[in-house]
């Protein structure tokens, strides 16, 4: 039986992070801040250079951590997977996207796991954090390691612990956010827990890796269902000429049995639009079904089209067709305060309006350029409301001025919370 370095001393742990993206980099910085020696593995030379230049999209606290880490020889970046053998623990944080048919694209995850398995040495703790279908940890890590002759829970320690990074939200720190962990054996859980406690003291152990995997899918399916319901209630409120935000806030005064979810222009980012499809895909393979989740994901997929249709209807009610209309979209990232465009509903909305003949521009200080459908869009740095027929408020970034919106003749608010324009209409 190989003795893990974790069983000797907690202060000398070294950790390798596979994938230095929006999950991997904050994880690496959190571990480094706790005193660990950190090796960040990323196959993209551009990404590594961006990190070393201090350019990634991070909250202020992590930018400060990065500034310190860049000057410390305990923080290193590499593109060589063979160096994973240097670490006492390896945490896998690669993306798990969907293809155009909403089918899991497992290529990046399979490739990362193959590299980890190939370079695993006895005594290491391996933790998968990437969201995937139930059974991924055993299929991509545990079984290949067994075939190498390594005994789980003795020679090597394998677990799943879903990431809970909330990009752009400084209040949701890793230290204050509990982590769920499930190992392939009790010893695997124990070793993984001791690694994760370097990020947060709040670690909740479950009985298996599969339980931890399904936990993450449940979390984001829960959010998807409730966001779909919030958008549906916004439509109900529109029919009854009521304010959905006022209704939601009133319902939220109940101290039990209700959780606030708010309507919006669509759901973006890597989690909610994608993760439930991993569960639905697996259920289809097993001839199972989850009709409520399926309907919620269909509703979410239709939301950007509904917003585009509302723009058309608003212009029509003002005696203006969408063809030739001058439209500006305020904010195009998927959430306030981040530069992340992944799955942003603004992209589909812009494409739909442009396909209808509208002259579409956008204003987003965090995104200077967009490329959609072979076309390039430049952010208008200083828009004037009088230059446009309609402004669609999609994402409002903190610390930015939107005074110009008040002067636009038609204001359509897809955030439902922009009350600075007195004549706004709600989607």
UniProtKB/TrEMBL annotation:
Recorded superkingdom: Bacteria
Keyword Oxidoreductase: yes
One GO BP annotation of this record: polysaccharide biosynthetic process
Keyword Cell cycle among record annotations: no
Keywords carried by this UniProt record: NAD, Oxidoreductase
Residues annotated as domain UDP-glucose/GDP-mannose dehydrogenase C-terminal: 328-420
Pfam families found in the cross-reference section: UDPG_MGDP_dh (PF00984), UDPG_MGDP_dh_C (PF03720), UDPG_MGDP_dh_N (PF03721)
InterPro entries cross-referenced by the UniProt entry: 6-PGluconate_DH-like_C_sf (IPR008927), NAD(P)-bd_dom_sf (IPR036291), UDP-Glc/GDP-Man (IPR017476), UDP-Glc/GDP-Man_DH_C (IPR014027), UDP-Glc/GDP-Man_DH_C_sf (IPR036220), UDP-Glc/GDP-Man_DH_dimer (IPR014026), UDP-Glc/GDP-Man_DH_N (IPR001732), UDP_ManNAc/GlcNAc_DH (IPR028359)
Gene3D superfamilies, sorted: NAD(P)-binding Rossmann-like Domain
SMART domains attached to this UniProt entry: UDPG_MGDP_dh_C (SM00984)
PANTHER family: UDP-N-ACETYL-D-MANNOSAMINE DEHYDROGENASE
Family indicated by similarity: Belongs to the UDP-glucose/GDP-mannose dehydrogenase family.
NCBIfam families assigned: NDP-sugDHase (TIGR03026)
Name under which the protein is recorded: Nucleotide sugar dehydrogenase
């Amino acid at each position: 039986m190989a003795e893990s370095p974790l069983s000797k001393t907690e202060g000398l742990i070294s950790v390798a992070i596979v994938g230095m993206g929006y999950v991997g980099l904050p994880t690496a910085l959190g571990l480094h801040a706790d005193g660990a020696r950190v090796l960040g593995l990323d196959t993209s030379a551009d990404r590594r250079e961006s990190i070393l230049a201090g350019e990634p999209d991070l909250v202020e606290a992590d930018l400060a951590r990065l500034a310190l880490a860049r000057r410390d020889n305990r923080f290193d970046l590499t593109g060589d997977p063979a160096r994973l053998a240097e670490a006492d623990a390896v945490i896998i944080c690669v993306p798990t996207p969907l293809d155009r048919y909403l089918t899991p694209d497992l290529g990046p995850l399979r490739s990362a796991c193959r590299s980890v398995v190939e370079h695993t040495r006895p005594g290491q703790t391996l933790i998968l954090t990437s969201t995937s279908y139930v059974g991924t940890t055993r299929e991509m890590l545990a079984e290949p390691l067994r075939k190498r002759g390594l005994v789980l829970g003795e020679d090597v320690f394998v677990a799943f612990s879903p990431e809970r990074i909330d990009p752009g939200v400084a209040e949701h720190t890793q230290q204050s956010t509990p982590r769920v962990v499930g190992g392939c054996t009790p010893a695997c859980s124990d070793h993984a827990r001791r690694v994760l406690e370097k990020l947060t003291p709040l670690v909740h152990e479950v009985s298996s890796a599969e339980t931890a995997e399904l936990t993450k899918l449940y979390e984001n399916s829960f959010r998807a269902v409730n966001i779909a319901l919030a958008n549906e209630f916004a439509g109900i409120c529109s029919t009854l000429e009521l304010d959905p935000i006022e209704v939601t806030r009133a319902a939220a005064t109940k101290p039990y049995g209700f959780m606030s979810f708010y309507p919006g222009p669509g759901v973006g980012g890597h989690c909610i639009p994608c993760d439930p499809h991993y569960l639905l895909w697996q259920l289809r393979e097993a001839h199972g079904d989850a009709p409520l989740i399926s309907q919620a994901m269909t509703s979410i997929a239709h939301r950007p089209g509904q917003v585009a249709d509302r723009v058309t209807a608003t212009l029509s009610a003002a005696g203006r067709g969408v063809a030739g209309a001058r439209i500006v979209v305020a904010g195009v990232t998927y959430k306030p305060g981040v530069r992340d465009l992944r799955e942003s509903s603004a992209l589909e909305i812009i494409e739909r309006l442009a396909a209808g003949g509208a002259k579409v521009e956008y204003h987003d200080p965090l995104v200077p350029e967009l490329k959609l459908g072979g076309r390039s869009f430049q952010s208008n740095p200083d828009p004037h409301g009088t230059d446009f027929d309609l402004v669609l408020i999609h994402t409002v970034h903190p610390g930015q001025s939107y005074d110009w919106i008040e002067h636009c003749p038609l204001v359509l608010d897809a955030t439902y919370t922009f009350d600075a324009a007195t004549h706004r209409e709600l989607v």
